[in-house]
């Protein structure tokens, strides 16, 4: 890699770097959405979702390992799992909140760009539970396989008006 790119990045102030990270995340989401829409138009929603889940199964494992390596995450646990999710490439584009209490973490998505974009385009919600299931379970496998992941609600199932999905992470034996 040409070091001039890295040198230019090193010159930027922190707030500009954060805005760049947000932009890169939005770019990633745009590319993912365009890819998904193209496959859906040509082969149908079922095939697009099948291929998307396959991508998430592979990509989320690679990304979690890279995050673990770059951040030097050696300890498992719920804090480290949530930290890994926070640093995933898609995370800055989403609006979510989480709580960690004892042996349980609850992650709730309040702003989901893919779902909101589909609705704006008149396509309606799509069944995204399997993509997040793949992503979160792979993060857990990489960071702390003792943790279990449970979907509390997510499309295609019903969800509250103020949240798209909610996931529970439980670390057994840690009260």
Describe this structure in words.
There is one protein chain. The protein has 175 residues and is of the alpha+beta class. It has a single domain, classed as H-NOX domain (Alpha-Beta Complex). The protein has six helices and four strands, in the order H-H-H-H-E-E-H-H-E-E. The chain has a four-stranded antiparallel sheet with strand order 1-2-4-3, with helices on one face. Helix 2 runs antiparallel to helix 3 (45-71) and helix 4 (78-86) packs across helix 6. It is globular and about 40 Å long. It starts with a helix and ends in a 5-residue tail after the last strand.
Question: Strand percentage, roughly?
Answer: 15-25%
Biggest beta-sheet profile: 4 strands, antiparallel
Radius of gyration: 17 Å
What letter string, H or E per element, gives the SSE order? HHHHEEHHEE
The neighbouring-strand order within the major sheet is 1-2-4-3
Overall form:
globular
**Distance from first to last alpha carbon:** 47 Å
- The total strand number stands at 4
Q: What fold name goes in the CATH topology slot?
A: H-NOX domain
What is the average per-residue confidence, as pLDDT, rounded to a whole number? 94
Q: Just name the CATH architecture.
A: Alpha-Beta Complex
**What's the CATH C level?**
Alpha Beta
Counted by DSSP, the helix tally is 6
Helix content: 55-70%
Write the layout of secondary structure elements.
Blueprint: H1 3-11, H2 14-43, H3 45-71, H4 78-86, E1 95-101, E2 104-111, H5 113-120, H6 129-143, E3 148-153, E4 165-170
Antiparallel strand pairs: 1-2, 2-4, 3-4
Helix pairs in contact: 2-3, 3-6, 4-6
